Prior knowledge:
Elements lengths: L13 H18 L7 E6 L6 H15 L3 E5 L7 H4 L8 H6 L14 E3 L8 E4 L8 H5 L2 H13 L2 E5 L9 H7 L2 E7 L5 H13 L4 E7 L14 E2 L3
This protein binds adenosine-5'-triphosphate and magnesium ion.
Amino acid sequence: MAKRFNFSRRKANQFDLNEVYRQLRTNIEFMEFDDKVQAINITSTTKNEGKTTISLNLARMFAAKYQGVLLIDCDLRNPSIHKQINKSNSQGLSNILSELSENLNISYREEVFHLQFAPEENPFDVITTGTKVPNPTEVLSSNRFRKFMEIARQQYKYIIIDCPPIGYVADAIPVSNLCDGTLYVISCKEKHKKQVRNAVNDLKRTGVNILGAVLNKVDISSQKYGYGYYYGDEK
Ligand SMILES: Nc1ncnc2c1ncn2[C@@H]1O[C@H](COP(=O)(O)OP(=O)(O)OP(=O)(O)O)[C@@H](O)[C@H]1O
Ligand SMILES: [Mg+2]
């Protein structure tokens, strides 16, 4: 069943939740002192660790401050951003890629949704995965996708990309290689320390810049530092 992304549902945690994502945005902004961090992708070791939730919240938090934010669902095997925003996935990234041209104006494409969660925030663009493709790894490793990312970089200030988990398929690797940095989500509900280490090493071996880890699904009742969020440098 489609789940609507709904901040008001969690009124009691509203402030804390926003604060967590604001802090995450601030940490990313500070990293830009050294290198440009314009395109950021989110991955994890296994399914269900919170990648889509974090991608969407992060895009929203960047849009609260900046104009020109694009969120892309690159989890072509298990798309879910459209469910969280309650939109159709009949058209999206795969359709844009199939008609890619030099003069593509992304925001004007009919496949692109324009979302605004609060009047005081800027709207941001969202591209869902679109028509199912039989070869996700090839699509995400293609010259077309690379060209699309080049165009997106010219047209947006920040690009946030939801990726599949790295432990199952290699799809997140080519996407990570086209991004300036990767956020690695680790759910505290999983007992997968070794798999996390292996997956992070695999990413690093291919030259991926891991910006940090987001520790998700922390049991806040047992944590002294408040809401379930931790940001650490994995380098
Ligand atoms: N911090 C959190 N605390 C509790 N539940 C959470 C938290 N973050 C995400 N969830 C819930 O966990 C489930 C999985 O989240 P989400 O879809 O974001 O994960 P995912 O890593 O994108 O999953 P998939 O690998 O299937 O794409 C959802 O039901 C979501 O609401
Ligand atoms: Mg997901």
